[in-house]
Design brief:
By secondary structure, the chain is mainly β. It has 1 helix and 9 strands. It starts with a strand and ends in a 17-residue tail after the last strand.
């Protein structure tokens, strides 16, 4: 399975977000004014929104190559560790949509990159990603 890309920059902790991909509870109103609830499924997909506020062209190229060649624009899953936390749990994830690239508004030689990933499961692999991450040295 592919690994998450490895660049020196860290995502912005201020633009970082996590949420459930969808509401797992189905609610039905009743005549008496109360409502009945039941879960839609046992799986509750969670997403993480990741934003790099200012990265150089070289890091953008690593992300673009990873997006196209490694995960096929979201078609393939990859192993992921949260870069904003020292979370020892490794997840299997997929891109939840396209990666968005924008030129930085104040520095035309830098980029802002944002995307959302869907966490599919906890990975059974306990090895560190640092040795197998996709980076400019592996392209």
């Amino acid at each position: 399975m592919a690994s998450f890309f490895d660049i020196p920059e860290k995502p912005s902790p201020f633009a970082y977000g996590q949420r459930m991909k969808s509401d797992p509870v189905h609610r039905s109103d009743t005549v008496s004014g109360t409502y009945l609830t039941r879960t839609r499924s046992t799986a509750v997909p969670r997403t993480r929104t990741i934003f790099y506020a200012s990265i150089p062209e070289s890091s953008k190229q690593i992300i673009e190559a990873w997006e196209e060649d490694v995960v096929g624009f979201g078609g393939s899953a990859f192993n992921w560790l949260d870069p904003n936390r020292n979370d020892p749990v490794q997840y299997v994830a997929k891109l939840a949509g396209p990666i968005e690239y924008n030129i930085h508004p104040k520095h035309s030689e830098r980029w802002q990159v944002g995307f959302t990933i869907a966490l599919l499961a906890r990975s059974s692999s306990s090895s560190s990603l640092s040795s197998s991450s996709f980076s400019s040295s592996s392209s």
